[in-house]
Design brief:
The protein has helices at residues 6-9, 12-28, 43-56, 62-67, 72-75, 83-98, 107-123. By secondary structure, the protein is an all-alpha fold. It has one domain (7-123): Globin-like (Orthogonal Bundle), CATH 1.10.490. It is globular. Bound molecules: protoporphyrin IX containing FE. The site of protoporphyrin IX containing FE has 20 residues, from helix 3, helix 5, helix 6 and helix 7.
Length: 129
Amino acid sequence: RPEQTFYDAVGGAETFRRLVSHFYREVAADEILRPLYPEQDLGPAERRLRMFLEQYWGGPHTYSTERGHPRLRMRHVPFRITPIERDAWLRCMHVAVDAIDRDTLDDQARKRLIGYFEMAAASLVNSPF
Ligand code: HEM
């Protein structure tokens, strides 16, 4: 089906749930990133990233219903994001993408996801050092 979204093509909600769950497991153990998350419980942050990614890739628009326009650059201003934090974030996301099996995420889908994450993470760097 040519009109199928990327979200549907890679397995929908279940795939994004697994991806973001793996990602936050890495964040929880990362000494650069963990101190940035103000809440003790990473669950709410996990849910926000999951809803955002589902919406971005053509799934349900729950993120904007609950949070409004994403405005990611603005929402990251409270956090000092240097190339160190960017690289730590991308490392966690690479681990998460690698944890998804090949049947769910083929090479092309993997490249699309990673390419997007690299672009998005670079755009959120807000401090040179
Ligand atoms: C929120 C850090 C990159 C999407 C947050 C929060 C932190 C953070 C500390 C607050 C946690 C919360 O309460 O939700 C970082 C760092 C990054 C990064 C250090 C490194 C570059 C990204 C990227 C994306 C993203 C690349 C998207 C692809 C989000 C979203 C939220 C969020 C959707 C929740 C916004 C809201 O609705 O309040 N990020 N982030 N972040 N981040 Fe990032």
